Amino acid sequence: MNPAARAHRPPQFDTARLIDDRRIRIVVCCGAGGVGKTTTAAALALRAAERGREAVVLTIDPARRLAQSMGLSELDNIPRAVAGVDTSGGGKLDAMMLDMKRTFDEVVEDHTTPERAKQILANPFYQALSSSFAGTQEYMAMEKLGQLRARSDWDLIVVDTPPSRSALDFLDAPERLGSFLDGRLIRLLGGTARAGGRTYLKLLHAGFSVVTSALTKILGGELLRDVSTFVNALDTMFGGFRERADQTYALLKRPETAFIVVAAPEPDALREASYFVDRLSRDAMPLAGLVLNRVHPSQPGGIGAEQAVAGAERLEAGGSDELTAALLRLHAERLRLAARDERVGERFTSAHPEVPVTHVPALVGDVHDLTGLRRIGDLLS
């Protein structure tokens, strides 16, 4: 590391101290897709459980890697105990994977009458909304977080956020879905259903016929009727969506919550991490630190990259010791990768010198069991 970089070295992120702090009840791992959020969340939850915390980890990873790494045949919307965890310190570990559709169904069932819930669950528009509406997965992740936090089964909840194109989708989803369900068009359609169609006729005469006609052509009259019926059945829940969205946002801002931004030493991933750090700061949300995954560590001492390449070329020119030449080239490539990772990481720390950082070195293979998760947990500290 050059002297300037050493002078601006960020504070060390002590994850062990974080998970040992009993005041911390929620840890949210966020960042771009493919940077190791799932593995980081699982490793932190396992380490917390083996240090005496009663932990549950919630993943939204469709690849189901978490289930495999924890020795579970499957994960679903119900927290399941993870076997093989050292519970001698009084801790425990449960794991679950978000079922977006089932969580939405639970929201409906919990916040309306059985008869109205039956109407809503059977509605074709609701079925489409609860399965594929943009932002629903992120919103339901936070709904599930609220459900888990309301229970007394755990003293630590670790959340692996959805693999969105933008990490900011996670923070924006509750507001976006709440705005949609509270929006003018949805309320308008609800008014149409409640007025038995009279409102619809008035709208036609008031100049809305062009919009309605276009929607009918694109979506079909049957779908519009489904939307109206859905909104009419959902009427008593409108305030609830907005209220819970606000409660979720407030929960994320409390001191009991800690955000961990996860990134890889790649420009796009760190750019996303930088956006997320700025957003958390702007919204006064508690950022604990950055986990920089898959870093190629520098190797102080020994020969440099250029010397290694020159030595390999000499050996190759002499037609002897091909193995040594190959090892020299491998050494040179690792040094180049380490230098690149350091440069990319320095750009982030220069922009955010106050953010604590911990580096996790790149491993040879994938993490696929508890032993691997324990190793990651050790490296995180």
UniProtKB/TrEMBL annotation:
Could you tell me which residue ranges the ArsA/GET3 Anion-transporting ATPase-like domain spans?
25-299
- Stored InterPro entries: ArsA/GET3_ATPase-like, ATPase_ArsA/GET3, P-loop_NTPase
- Write out the GO MF terms: ATP binding; ATP hydrolysis activity
Q: Which domain of life is it from?
A: Bacteria
Pfam families in UniProt: ArsA_ATPase (PF02374)
Cross-referenced PANTHER family:
ANION TRANSPORTER ATPASE-RELATED (PTHR10803:SF26), ARSENICAL PUMP-DRIVING ATPASE ARSENITE-TRANSLOCATING ATPASE (PTHR10803)
Q: What is this protein called?
A: ArsA family ATPase
State the species of origin.
Jiangella asiatica
